[in-house]
Amino acid sequence: MTFYPAHQVLATQADLLHRLRLATGVGDDEYQRLYGTVITNLANGVNLLPATETGTHQGAGGLFRLSLELGFYSLQASEATIFAARAGVERRRLLEPRWRYATWLAGMCCELYRPITTMIVTAPDGDQWPTYRLPLGDWLEEKGVERYYIRWIDQSPGKQRPGRGAAATLAHRLIPDVALQYLHEGSNDIVPTMIDVITGSFGSHNPHPMARIIEVVREKVVARDNAIRPQTYGKLTVGQHTEPHLLDAMRRLLKAGKWTVNVKKSRLWFGDEGLFLIWPTAANEMLDMLRQEGMAGIPQDSQTILEILAEAQVFEAHHDGGYFWTVYPPLSSNELAAVKFANPDTIFGALFDAPESAGVLTSRVESKTASDNTSGVRSEEQPTATSSSVLEQAPKTGPEKPCPSESATEASQKPATIAPKPSITSSAEPEPCTRHKSRVAPSQSKDRQPKTEIDLAEKVKPELGNGLDALTRDVFGALLDDLRAGKITNEAGKCKEGYAIGLEHLASYGIDITTFAVAVQKAGWLYTPSDKPNKKIIEVQINGKSQRAIVIKLHVAIDMGFVA
Asked: Which burial class, exposed, middle or buried, applies to 476 when counting CB atoms under 10 A from its CB (0-12, 13-18, 19+)?
């Protein structure tokens, strides 16, 4: 394995680090203090070590990539989890960012037992890396060597290999004292909980929400890596393997935006039955790309391409034994021939934002119309509710609509997932509640005076939306109260896209951000980028500070009183 300095290791994951920088929503100085130092220490500590010998994230830099992915997705998942649901508003504003930061640290460090328990690293002269004394990068630099070697530890029969507890040693080396003190200033429970999660000390009975997030995210990250790994497809034979080149072409077409998902004229349609690719149109576009790049030895017939990918188990056979499926895209009267992916992560694994289901695709559903699209189809004319969070959650529907309680729901504690999110299956307006108690913290509700309370449904023009449910109405009321009381400084404000509400400030009201965003978009109030109509959480500048936020359309914000 070649030794790279830490800054070169960081450069290998520039795209993922850029997404992490946006996801944190903090200023440059705070990012470097809390996040940048940890990431640099990780790059120096593990260098380009693989995570496993033949399993997930094998190969150079695998452990560094695995740690970054676990941290990134865990941070995203934590945004939809209320850790301090019973705390007051002010207390929750102090605690929630710290719990989310601790969740990121736990994700970053939970796999660091591997260099200690599964491998032995040596220099060319045979000296062994003193794991407990120096980070790998410092030791290699001290030795003045350019290469190092890995010997995997075989597990003897009947001998149990040490577990995740060894991760605590390297975690302490990665996490600076200033970060631990930052967590401790919020609560005495945060650091011990984080260490327990890193070392796997939580049992399966009633684990902490942080532990549930990490475990589910780990499963999804490993499954995604298995799905996109070229070795998963085809059989090892002498000669050229075309399957990896074909898969790479599909992923690049999707990533470049030449292929779209669930919009008019899309090549890809994702529904309840799985992921479908319009064929042979897609095959011709793949071949055009490979020809332009000078790729030799690729078959030029779409049927041959289909047979190769089917043999590699990329595509799933129809029940009639063939590989062609008939799909009925929503918002269209056409029926199209398509092939079905055996695993959607084969192509979506290269993306960070999974698509939303378009509902049933293999049979015609008459209720799917442009005016009443309830299946989650992403349309250029009518963007639907989706989430950039990795939380797998959909609003509950049913014949009865109980009044919301004062505390955050248990649903906000559900663990995260990277898998494609379920569709929103009902567009019915919520039934009126005979008795409503605000789920906004009591300290804010009491401060709200009846004479200044605004009925948003009457305040906003009818054409702006179909109204809000009671909980979303209360959140907007609390926001208005905080704005008038001068409690909102840099957490929310006008931006070029509209009126932005930072995620950290929004979470302080004790609501689930995903559910709130769905309700706001359903009312027609949510701003979404024209090129990404399914993206509800975007990066904006609020008073000169970059934050991830939900943005209300400007004319709505003016009518509601947020903008003068």
From this structure: buried
Mean pLDDT of the chain: 76
Predicted TM-score (pTM) of the model is 0.53
Using the Cα atoms of residue 185, residue 186, residue 187 and residue 192 in order, give the sign of their dihedral: negative
What is the distance in angstroms between the CA of the first residue and the CA of the last residue of the chain? Answer: 61
Task: Please tell me the distance from the alpha carbon of residue 79 to that of residue 99, in angstroms, as a whole number.
Answer: 10
| Percentage, residues of the chain above pLDDT 90 | 27
Instruction: List Cβ neighbours of 347 (8 Å cut-off, separation of 6 or more).
Output: 247, 250, 251, 254, 268, 275, 341
Q: Within 79-189, where are the H helices?
A: 89-109, 114-117, 136-143, 167-174, 177-186
For 549, the enclosing helix (H) or strand (E) is strand 545-553
pLDDT in tens, 190-226: 999 999 999 988 766 667 899 999 999 998 898 888 7
CB 349 within 8 A of CB 228: yes
**Residue for token digits 């919520």?**
430
Output the six-digit token pair for 395: 């609003």
Which residues in 287-403 belong to E strands, given as ranges?
A: 315-316, 325-327, 336-341
Count other Cβ atoms within 10 Å, centred on residue 198.
Answer: 29
Structure tokens at 94: 């102090």
- Which of left, alpha, beta for 293 (phi over 0: left; psi -120 to 50: alpha)? alpha
3-state secondary structure of 93: helix
DSSP designation for 35? I
pLDDT at residue 163 tops 70: yes
Residue 325 CA to residue 407 CA, distance in Å, equals 47
Neighbours of 33 (CB within 10 A): 16
Q: How far is CA 206 from the centre of its chain?
A: 24
User: Could you give the CA distance from residue 553 to residue 550 in angstroms, rounded to a whole number?
Assistant: 10
* CATH number of the structural domain 6-228: 1.10.3210.40
Residue 396 Cα to chain centre, angstroms: 22
C-alpha torsion sign, points 66, 69, 73, 78: positive
532 pLDDT more than 80:
no
pLDDT in tens, 39-63: 999 999 999 999 988 888 988 899 9
> Does 124 score more than 70 pLDDT?
yes
User: CATH 1.10.3210.40 occupies which residues in the chain?
Assistant: 6-228
Residue 250: exposed, middle, or buried by beta-carbon count in 10 A (0-12, 13-18, 19+)? buried
Q: What angle do CA 153, 237, 66 make, to 5 degrees?
A: 40
Q: What is the mean pLDDT of residues 122-145?
A: 92
Place of tokens 């289901």: 357
> Which amino acid, residue 206?
N
Round to whole Å and give the CA distance between 308 and 320. Answer: 19
- β-strand pairing of 492-495 with 498-502: antiparallel
Q: Is the dihedral angle over the CA atoms 503, 507, 508, 511 positive or is it negative?
A: positive
CA distance to 386, 428, 458, 479, 558, per residue, from 523 (Å): 14, 12, 14, 18, 16
Question: Is residue 363 classed as helix, strand or coil in its secondary structure?
Answer: coil
160 or 263: which leads in pLDDT: 263
